[in-house]
Amino acid sequence: MVSLLDLPVEIRLIIYTHLLNPNEYVKSYQKLGVQEPSSYGGPLCALPRPYVKRYTPSILLLNKKITTEALHYLYRIPLNLYGTPRAYFFMRQMDIAEFISEHYLQRIHHAVLRLVDANKNFVLSLLDIWGAKNRLERLDVYRPKSQTDSQHWKVVESRLWTFSSVVPVVFHEVDHPLKVEASGATYI
Hints:
It comes from Penicillium vulpinum. This is F-box domain-containing protein. With about 190 residues, the chain is α/β, with parallel strands linked by helices. It has one domain. It has helices spanning about 10-20, 25-35, 65-75, 100-105, 120-130, 150-165; strands at about 80, 110-115, 140-145, 170-175, 180, 185. The protein has a 4-stranded parallel β-sheet with strand order 1-2-3-4, with helices on one face. It has a two-stranded antiparallel sheet with strand order 5-6. Helix 5 (about 120-130) runs parallel beside helix 6 (about 150-165).
């Protein structure tokens, strides 16, 4: 019987490409949007906080050699980061660490922030996580061309400029930051 480790490295990398997608966490955003408690009769503060189920891809649980090899690849996949949803859309902003582990966020090499609005809590919590430890080689920030003069945008931009002394931060002004053409694919 042939083991995964018996395959050439090039083929194993192709397998990792199909099994590892760090940007799938966004599917949890959509699931939370469906849970609007419109029929709840009690006080909203009594609602339980939504739980986001995180998982470890099975390929990372096989053995130490495969895990090390796959993680090396996974940390180099650009991670698209979108502002987190509010819990039930009217409670406090959810933390990015509820969707993606801090351990993973601190080990990625390239992140792409796609900001539709000045989601100050989202950006500041990310910068706090990366301030403790990071391996970022580049941070791309996509923001809308208009509506960048509010006080929240000024705080976000100021913190990102400060962070750029540690990691190269590249700002991009676009019409719609969630829809960007890259290598023939549109990311939304």
